[in-house]
């Protein structure tokens, strides 16, 4: 097959796969909310950061603590600060800061998730979809080529084994098609 034909076949395969159904990706996020107010903001932030195919679920029993206020008092222009108390990471939010709590919490939640500020759904998919196989920040035919090169193989840590079950098969193709958007 020449390049154009291969590309066409790949696109058709993906278009068909997109019709076959969906496999959702759920990501557990470990952050301890220090108060009900912070928890509400945190749950809202995680919901907003989710994309429909990547969902973030709060695990409130581990991870850094997010809490409102702290000693000493904040400078008025500070949104939040990160510190370590007794070996544990704490993020304190300025109760009178320049941003509403919901927005401030979302920024810090994105940081915990390793996402850029104002993360787009594309950022979330690239980071958590597992489909950016060559880790260049985009999900495209180069990644698809890596997956197809490993298709049918068994083993641990195979590139293209998106669901981590030790084989690269149709399930991984389906997952990939969830994160790949036709150009
Ligand atoms: Ca890529
Ligand atoms: Ca697999």
UniProtKB/TrEMBL annotation:
PROSITE patterns: EF_HAND_1 (PS00018)
BP-aspect Gene Ontology terms: polysaccharide catabolic process
Keywords associated with the record: Signal
InterPro entries for the chain: Dockerin_dom_sf, EF_Hand_1_Ca_BS
Leader sequence residues: 1-26
Domain of life: Bacteria
Protein name: Dockerin domain-containing protein
Protein's organism: Deinococcus peraridilitoris (strain DSM 19664 / LMG 22246 / CIP 109416 / KR-200)
């Amino acid at each position: 097959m020449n390049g154009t034909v291969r590309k066409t076949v790949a696109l058709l395969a993906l278009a068909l796969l997109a019709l076959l159904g969906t496999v959702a990706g759920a990501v557990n996020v470990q952050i301890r909310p220090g108060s009900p107010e912070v928890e509400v903001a945190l749950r809202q932030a995680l919901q907003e950061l989710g994309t429909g195919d990547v969902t973030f679920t709060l695990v409130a029993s581990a991870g850094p603590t997010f809490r409102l206020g702290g000693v000493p008092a904040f400078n008025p222009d500070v949104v939040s600060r990160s510190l370590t108390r007794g070996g544990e990471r704490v993020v304190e939010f300025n109760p009178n800061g320049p941003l509403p709590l919901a927005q401030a919490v979302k920024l810090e939640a994105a940081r915990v998730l390793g996402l850029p500020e104002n993360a787009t759904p594309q950022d979330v998919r690239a980071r958590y979809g597992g489909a950016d196989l060559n880790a260049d920040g985009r999900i495209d035919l180069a990644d698809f080529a890596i997956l197809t090169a490993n298709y049918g193989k068994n083993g641990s840590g195979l590139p293209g084994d998106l669901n981590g079950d030790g084989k690269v098969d149709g399930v991984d193709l389906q997952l990939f098609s969830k994160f790949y958007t036709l150009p």
